[in-house]
């Protein structure tokens, strides 16, 4: 038996990079994989096909976790499609690097909303399901930059530090 056989995992921001690798690894371990992408339908479809070729159920959802209502709709859709949700991996993230004196409010807001607010949105949406099931795991992807910032990354550092603080929360 594989480690995640019978489990349903939702991974945000999985069409490339770290999220894609997480989705592949979860599928290799037998999980049903639901994942989100935002910008590239082609990359989302390619990942879905790749995961299904590993012999698991997989489905990509075009969704913006930074949008509160969209995150709730996403979790509801995953539960409707697969009957449950066992693992939430908050991986969606972006950078908009620039020195603070040149950083726009839009650059700040985009990073905070995508990296930090999306964690709140999806965790809040999944909590109801996890409590009803009396089980569920949440993995929030952060960065060492959240502990010690980098030049030109005030927004990214703040978002990742916020995730570190948010992750200390425990559901009742």
TrEMBL record:
Keyword Isomerase included in the entry's annotation: no
Keyword Oxidoreductase set for record: yes
Name the record gives this protein: 3-oxoacyl-[acyl-carrier-protein] reductase FabG
Domain of life: Bacteria
Annotated organism of origin: Cesiribacter andamanensis AMV16
Pfam families tied to this protein: adh_short
Keyword annotations from UniProtKB, A to Z: Oxidoreductase
MF GO annotations: 3-oxoacyl-[acyl-carrier-protein] reductase (NADPH) activity
EC numbers: 1.1.1.100
Family, per entry: Belongs to the short-chain dehydrogenases/reductases (SDR) family.
